[in-house]
Amino acid sequence: MDHSADAQRTDLMTITRFVLNEQSKHPESRGDFTILLSHIVLGCKFVCSAVNKAGLAKLIGLAGETNVQGEEQKKLDVLSNDVFIKALVSSGRTCILVSEEDEEATFVEPSKRGKYIVVFDPLDGSSNIDCGVSIGTIFGIYLVKEDREPTIEDVLQPGKNMLAAGYCMYGSSCTLVLSTGTGVNGFTLDPSLGEFILTHPDIKVPKKGKIYSVNEGNAKNWDGPTTKYVENCKFPKDGSSPKSLRYVGSMVADVHRTFLYGGIFLYPADKKSPNGKLRVLYEVFPMSFLMEQAGGQAFTGKQRALDLVPTKLHERSPIFLGSYEDVEEIKALYAVDNGLE
Ligand code: FDP
């Protein structure tokens, strides 16, 4: 009998146990982060269950439609937002919430206030909801600077100031990937236990990959460096094999594959969208934070993505992120274009 294999199977590292272990390395910690995270995890479990039942429960559809009971139905992204806002406020550990779904930030009332700011996209990849393709939740966490009335300035901080970031992918399995600034770990939901179990410890993105991921339908409007980079992916001049193209169209799914298989994910600027499409606070920053923690890079076409200082809540930025060497290549092309080389 293989006792060591058995021990592994029976010694389950849940996400709560993992974060409690991390917490014990900081004796001054009072467990606030662990409590906040358990509320985020609850939101993810709820959304996972709603996504799985979406077709069945007729949750899909326009907000404001009614179901057979004549009750008003909520679109899945509106429902997910409500669940996350309520879970985060009730944690008692947050002071400002910024969601992709809400124009304005939510300032938590003083009696329920804590020291964390959470920026999040409750259901990213909305164009994939109705066809059952992988979608996800993305989140980033900041610590409010001082013990004073929080303001919007507390949110408009560069990504490098984030304390933690993560995403949950609702795919063929439900996977939560988290970094608290000391590497990246992946947890998979065991539906029979209702627990996220550590399945991908210490994720490291391969140094170089064989996949590029971009919406090529926008190619006619790209700038020179992006056009040249993608051309090199397809017709490499150094004798190497061409890269494969993979594009789901859900950032969470495309970036998750990049973590595991390597390669590069691009959402560049183009003539129609000079700032690209993806949002700085709750898409670009959390994914860039995770990518750097996994040994990769994230670049905007001008600078390290995590050095950006957003000036408004829903600001957008071009983004190139993935394997270290692949991002080096696009950085070199932009350096030539910007006259830096
Ligand atoms: P979606 O519009 O479907 O919500 O920012 C949202 C996002 O999806 C990302 O998840 C995804 O990477 C990107 O937009 C896809 O955009 P395109 O359809 O323009 O390729």
Automatic annotation (TrEMBL):
Its EC number is 3.1.3.11. Keywords: Carbohydrate metabolism, Cytoplasm, Hydrolase, Magnesium, Metal-binding. One of its GO terms (cellular component) is cytosol. Residues 205-334 form the Fructose-1-6-bisphosphatase class 1 C-terminal domain. GO terms for molecular function: fructose 1,6-bisphosphate 1-phosphatase activity; metal ion binding. It comes from the Eukaryota. InterPro entries: FBPase_C_dom (IPR044015), FBPase_class-1 (IPR000146), FBPase_N (IPR033391), FBPtase (IPR028343), Fructose_bisphosphatase_AS (IPR020548). PROSITE patterns: FBPASE. It is found in: Cytoplasm. Residues 13-201 form the Fructose-1-6-bisphosphatase class I N-terminal domain. Its cofactor is Mg(2+). GO terms for biological process: fructose 1,6-bisphosphate metabolic process; fructose 6-phosphate metabolic process; fructose metabolic process; gluconeogenesis; photosynthesis; sucrose biosynthetic process. Belongs to the FBPase class 1 family. NCBIfam families: PRK09293.1-1, PRK09293.1-3. This is Fructose-1,6-bisphosphatase, cytosolic.
